Amino acid sequence: MIPVCKPWLPGNEKKYIDDAVETNWISSNGEYITRFEEDFAQFCKTKYAACCTSGLAALHLACSALGLKKGDEVIAPTFTMAASTNAIIFTGAKPVLVDSDPETYCIDADKIEEKITERTKAIMPVHIYGHPCDMDKINYLAKKYNLYVIEDAAEAHGAEYNGKRCGSMSDVGCFSFYANKIITTGEGGMCTTQNKEIADRIKKLRNHAFDHPRFVHSEVGFNYRITNLQAAIGCAQMENAKMLVDARREVGIRYNQRLEKVKGLILPKEKSYAKNVYWMYGVVLDENVRLSRDELKDKLAEEGIETRSFFIPMHQQPAYVNKTAENVPDCSGSFPIADRISRRGFYLPSSSNISDEEIDYVCNSLEQILKEN
Ligand SMILES: Cc1ncc(COP(=O)(O)O)c(C=O)c1O
Questions:
Q1: pLDDT tens, residue by residue, 311-358
Q2: What is the fold, at CATH topology level, of the domain defined by 13-241?
Q3: Is the CB of 54 under 6 A from ligand 1?
Q4: Using CA atoms, how far apart are residues 181 and 161, in angstroms rounded to an integer?
Q5: What digits encode the pLDDT tens for the residues 74-89?
Q6: Which of 52, 93, 189, 273 could form a disulfide with 224 if both were Cys (CB 3.0 to 4.6 A apart)?
Q7: What is this structure's pTM?
Q8: Quick check: CB of 105 below 6 Å from ligand 1?
Q9: Which secondary structure element, helix H or strand E, spans residue 161, and what is its range?
Q10: Which residue's CA is the closest to the ligand 1 atom numbered 8?
Q11: Mean pLDDT, all residues of the chain
């Protein structure tokens, strides 16, 4: 089976883990932690970075550090992974959903303004599948209405908008280092920011909000501390960050070239402002293809090719539709783009170190199945 994605640890990962174990620095202090944060801030071109246990933790820390609370609203895309909107819900604030751009699948920046109310406190763009959102439009609206912007860059390590790195164009950028991410620590997350006060607040909140003296807490904190072991892997990954990002992008470009002329598939786009890193190479089946997306996925599986369906949009999630909390998003709107891509979209094997032969095999199999059906 060609897996949909597997981690790639091509450098000093094992050496640094061994070092952390041998020196006994296995918990949430240790020099790999500060080094990982410094390296990641430099990579994103931000002044500060604070690591934590997951992408969800990064988003929750960002929302909390910016003071989101009950009664507030945050504008977010319906087409995302549930961590984006759940992080908002944790704070008591309510996500307000917006449909996707038909080309990039990111939040449709032209549909944000109509959702802004006096309760809106922030916008959370999510750089879907490694393609940046239209950040100039989003930041223009944020300035006009005095809103925070939290970038969910969980899928967009190294992606760029007009030369600026994802995670550097907002109040806080949030990353995931889960095993399928372009840079991974197994599990892990990072907040990036240009603002020292926000960085300090995130670091305090992730560590039980310890005050001075210790065991005095002036606010409710969390334990979202990463260990020196994960940070050791992170440091090794950062030494190869350019190679890891370039390799993932090359996979996307090779798929684009090989599938360009295949009928029945809508391929991912790269807007003129964007450097797409193709975190996952997502294709959408044209409406005139008779096969359903799941039938096609099954046929690919028979050929030894693992694929994954696109996200199911937030307005279709039972946890939200069934109002399991008072501040879950209103699911009653119309979201035709998200509905369509979620029904017809899936991603192909996208590991950074997938071979050219494997990509060719996937493309030939896909082309053959589409021809026969
Ligand atoms: C857009 C998005 N946000 C947040 C997350 C959450 O990251 P984690 O799994 O590290 O909590 C993911 C995970 O894949 C994601 O795709």
A1: 999 999 999 999 999 999 999 999 999 999 999 999 999 999 999 999
A2: Aspartate Aminotransferase; domain 2 (3.40.640)
A3: yes
A4: 19
A5: 999 999 999 999 999 9
A6: 52
A7: 0.98
A8: no
A9: strand 160-161
A10: 55
A11: 97
83 lines ligand 1 (CB under 6 A): yes
Q: Does domain 242-372 have CATH number 3.40.50.720?
A: no
Tens digit of pLDDT for each residue in 49-62? 999 999 999 999 99
Mean pLDDT of all residues in 139-147: 98
Residues 47 and 196: their CA atoms lie apart, in Å, by 8
**What are 328's strand-pairing partners?**
none
Q: Is residue 64 within 6 Å of ligand 1 at its C-beta?
A: no
Q: What is the average per-residue pLDDT within 227-240?
A: 98
Pairwise CA distance, residues 130 & 165, whole Å? 11
User: Do the Cβ atoms of 183 and 10 come closer than 8 Å?
Assistant: no
The per-residue pLDDT for 232 is: 98
Query: How far is ligand 1, taken at its centre, from the CA of residue 197, in Å?
Result: 25
Give the mean pLDDT of 212-229. Answer: 94
Ligand 1 close to Cβ of residue 99 (< 6 A): no
Return the ∠ at Cα 52 (arms to 98 and 154), rounded to 5°: 35
d(CA 276, CA 283): 14
Per-residue pLDDT band for 373 (boundaries 50, 70, 90) equals confident
Contact 20, 195 (CB under 8 A): no
Mean pLDDT along residues 85-102: 98
310 CB within 6 A, ligand 1: no
Say if residues 11 and 240 touch (Cβ distance below 8 Å): yes
Q: Which atom of ligand 1 is nearest to the CA of 181?
A: 14
Taking the CA of residue 176 as reference, the ligand 1 atom at the shortest distance is 10
* Domain positions in the chain: 13-241, 242-372
Instruction: Specify the ligand 1 atom closest to the Cα of 87.
Output: 4
Report the separation in Å between the CA atom of 105 and the middle of ligand 1, taken as the mean of its atom positions. 16
In angstroms, what is the span from residue 154 Cα to ligand 1's centroid? 5
